[in-house]
Amino acid sequence: MALDFPHLDLSADEVLTSTRSVRKRLDLEKPVPLEVITDALEVALQAPSGSNAQGWHWIVLTDPEPKKIVAEYYRKSYFAYAEAGAAARAAKPPKDLETAEKVASSATYLAEVMEQVPALVIGAIHVPGGELPQGNQAGLWGSLLPAAWSLALALRERGLGSAWTTLHLEYEREVAEALGIPATVRQGVLLPVAYTKGTDFKPAKRAPLETVLHVNGW
C-alpha cells in the first residue's frame, strides 16, 4: 500500500522522458525519510525478473560511515576514469564538446560530495556460487536492472532524483566486505538519492530514432 508522500503531477510519458541523471541539483541538505525510498522500492519490485526468481537485493545506506566507505571507493575509481576521459577528449574532441565537458563537471561534483547525499542505494542480485556467468550476461542483469530503473522512475515521481552509477564496481569486493554483503550477492548499480532542487527536468537531446531503428533486420 502506497504511503501518503507528495507525488508530482506527471503522466507516465513525462516521468519516462524527464527522469535524468541528477548530480548538481541533488539537495544535500534535505533529509530523505527511509520510508520514501522503501515506498518507491515497492513499485520497483513489480519489474520483471527471469523465471520470476526475484533474486534482487537492495542495500540502502543512510548512516554517515557506510556512505563514506562507498564514497571513498567511488572517488578512487571515478578520478582514474575521469583522467582517462579527459585525455580522450583532448586527443579527439567529441562533436558536442560543450555538453561532454558539462557532464564531466557534473560527474566530478557528484564524486566529490557522494557521502553527503542523503541516501545511497545499491541494487544487487543473488548469483549461485557468486561467480558471474561466462559470455553474455543479459539474462542475469536483466533480472535486476529493470527494477533499478523502475526505482529511479518512482523516485522521480516522488520529487527525488538519482544518478545511475557503476564506477564503484571497480572495488565491488571491497565494498561488499565493508558492508557485509555475501559473496553470492553481486552488485549491479549504485543510485545516490536525494530530493531535487526544483522538479522541472526536461527530455534530453537524443539522436534521431531513424539513426538507430532497424525493422525486420539490420
UniProtKB/TrEMBL annotation:
Record SUPFAM superfamilies: FMN-dependent nitroreductase-like
Q: What is this protein called?
A: Nitroreductase
Query: Domain Nitroreductase spans what residues?
Result: 17-193
Q: Which UniProt keywords apply?
A: Oxidoreductase
Q: Which PANTHER family match?
A: NAD(P)H NITROREDUCTASE YDGI-RELATED, NADH DEHYDROGENASE_NAD(P)H NITROREDUCTASE XCC3605-RELATED
Report the Pfam families cross-referenced here: Nitroreductase (PF00881)
Which organism does this record belong to?
A: Tsukamurella tyrosinosolvens
Which Gene3D superfamilies does this chain map to? Answer: NADH Oxidase (3.40.109.10)
Task: Please indicate which superkingdom the organism of origin belongs to.
Answer: Bacteria
InterPro entries given in the database record = Nitroreductase (IPR029479), Nitroreductase-like (IPR000415)
